[in-house]
Write a structure and sequence with these properties.
With 374 residues, the chain is α/β, with parallel strands linked by helices. It is built from 13 helices and 16 strands. The strands form 4 sheets. It has a 7-stranded parallel β-sheet with strand order 3-2-1-4-5-6-15, sandwiched between helices. A hairpin with a 2-residue loop joins strand 13 and strand 14.
Length: 374
């Protein structure tokens, strides 16, 4: 049983450590949990000023019963342990049994759909929030989309997410798992439509630069799931990429090699091979982000029969944005009920202008550039 109000599950990872860092900024006591206590302690020791906030370090087995025992007494679980489609279910079940709100950092569209359809109603019955996918690659662009949707007459969202940096070990594994084990969808007239698997890289226009960029559906992204039940929205397509063009050109080759290695294998064997393949691609924690180098860009074109809007949000340090929004979610939930219970996005649960204000106050994004045509 935890004596702290917030659990950070997966605290030894790159993102988990940043979540702990921002919980300290909000003066929230937390329990750093995971499967290896020594690794957690090593990671938490690197958090600046960690000695100024109450925290516990706990080793726990990844199963519903021990997780439930740990979560008992807490209010919010921030989960960074992926791939979430394989590992998230036990954590959500433990949250349901103990009455904890659940947030995670997933980029797996199939996991969001599972949360929406299977776990969302059960969480809502208990008055609990289930908010997967609160992360820069999804939530910052959702903020831009919500700003566009304040314009009447738009019902179609064309979303582009770009960032400059190095994927973490967990992100690399998620990319390969998405590509090899799940389908990717966009939203067309309120229905999921599968992206063509052989479409390859998309040439895109990146606001603010003369050079075009390369992007991918990136597993379908979170936005089609979040907006599927929004009566203002009928169509959503989202693409993502990194500014590093050679790296983007290499992604299809990495995925093709992974597909070749896993062809014809049982699912469990595929997961084992993909884990090994991801480790070969990225096996060490990337360096801490540099605000002068690790920039982000989120662009949303919203259109409809009688309306047009375009919003661009320039920022920096995408993983820091993720850590901050996770910590703010916990901070908010400890003081008041979310705007929506059950399955909800970060903006639907906490408010898009509130999240924007948080990112602005910590110097992680610029004021959005919003243009509207009537």
């Amino acid at each position: 049983m935890s004596s702290k109000p917030v659990i950070v599950y997966g605290a030894s990872g790159y993102t988990g450590r940043l979540v702990c860092e921002y919980l300290r900024e909000y003066n929230i006591p937390f329990t750093a949990a995971g499967r290896d206590k020594s690794r957690i302690a090593e990671a938490i020791d690197k958090v600046p000023g960690i000695d100024t906030i109450e925290h516990d370090i706990v080793e726990v087995a990844h199963d519903v019963e021990p997780l439930s025992e740990l979560f008992e007494g807490s209010s919010v679980v921030l989960n960074t342990v992926g791939p979430f489609a394989q590992l998230g279910g036990e954590v959500v079940e433990a949250c349901i049994s103990t009455g904890c709100h659940y947030l995670d950092t997933t980029g797996e569209q199939d996991w969001l759909i599972e949360c929406d359809e299977q776990y969302g109603p059960r969480m809502a019955e208990k008055g609990l929030l289930l908010s997967p996918g609160i992360a820069q690659m999804y939530t910052t662009s959702e903020i831009a989309a919500q700003l566009c949707l304040e314009t009447p007459g738009v019902d179609t969202l064309d979303i582009l997410v770009f960032w400059k940096g190095t994927p973490t070990v967990a992100s690399t594994l998620t990319i390969l798992m998405n590509a090899c084990l799940s389908k990717a969808y966009y939203l067309e007239q309120d229905k999921y439509v599968e992206w063509q698997a052989d479409a390859g890289l998309y040439d895109v226009v990146v606001p603010g630069q003369h050079e075009t960029g390369l992007a991918l559906p990136w597993g379908g992204m979170s936005h089609p799931v979040w907006f599927k039940r929004d009566p203002r929205v009928a169509n959503v397509k989202a693409l993502g990429g990194v500014f590093n063009r050679p790296l983007m050109l290499g992604v299809p080759q990495i995925v093709a090699a992974a597909l070749a290695q896993t062809e014809g294998l049982p699912d469990e064997e595929k997961k084992r091979v993909l884990t090994e393949h991801a480790s070969a691609v990225m096996s060490q924690m990337p360096p801490r982000e540099n605000t002068r180098i690790n920039t982000s860009l989120d662009s949303v074109h919203a259109s409809g029969p009688l309306g047009r809007a375009h919003c661009v949000i320039h920022g920096n340090s995408n993983y820091k944005q993720t850590g901050l929004m996770q910590a703010y979610g916990a901070y908010s939930l400890l003081q008041q009920a979310p705007r929506r219970v059950g399955f909800a996005s970060g903006c639907q649960a906490f408010g898009h202008r509130e999240l924007l204000g948080v990112l602005r106050s910590f110097g992680l994004v610029m004021e959005p550039n919003l243009t509207i045509q009537h």
